[in-house]
Design brief:
The structure is a single chain. The chain has one domain: Rossmann fold (3-Layer(aba) Sandwich), CATH 3.40.50.880. 27% of the residues lie in helices and 24% in strands. The chain has 241 residues and is of the alpha/beta class. Strand 12 and strand 13 form a beta hairpin. A 9-stranded mixed beta sheet has the order 4-1-5-6-13-12-11-8-9, with helices on both faces. A two-stranded antiparallel ribbon has the order 2-3. The chain is globular and about 45 Å long. Helix 3 packs across helix 4.
Amino acid sequence: MAQHKPLIGILLDSEESGTFSPHPYYALRKDYFVAVEQTNAIPCGIHYSNTYLAEDFDRFDGYIIPGGDYTFPESWYASKTKSPHPPNNNRLSFECGFLEKCLNSHKPFLAICSGMQVLGAITGGKITSDLPKNPINHRPEKSINKNLHNIDIKKESLLHKAVKQTSIDINTHHSEALVSVGNACYVSAHATDGVIEAIEVKNHPFALGVQWHPESMPNNPHSINIFKAFVQAIHSSTAQK
């Protein structure tokens, strides 16, 4: 019998206006949906509705919190640095509640780029926008589909079990990063300049945050293995029920 295809809820980004429409709209790069489909799972976008969050959250088998550029609260920062991004209060307020539901549900989820930063912040971590540009420029031009720098991975972490390496090359496209995590999480990867590149939630079947964009490298074996490990965790979680 064919294995059940998991339904993956992907939080959408939003814009008040832009090239797609002068009116408010939801949007997200296709990469996220393609990456999920490659693992024989079904992607589904999630819009910002508290009613939907309350009534339909449990329909999904796992969740992805994607990247984005938007302002974080000043209290999230480790120093007096400020966010370089425009506000998106609709996304941030919903995203925090969405992540809290993910944490409490104990269903597998993957938080990418700013999604990882929000996960870190709501669990007691701190952020900075004062990133070094040497020896690594973490937000170079036109970088999202390229391997640009190396990271060191903690042995026996979820990430290590997924990629089966203690050091891999990743793409990079971020201007902020976590500088610490709370007691609920631990750091599972650093860049060679010390920047936090991955975090994981303790005592959770699969709660992984990565600072880079594995969805944008669909032919990279490490990227593929991260999504495979995520979906396999969903199958394992479902089988235990």
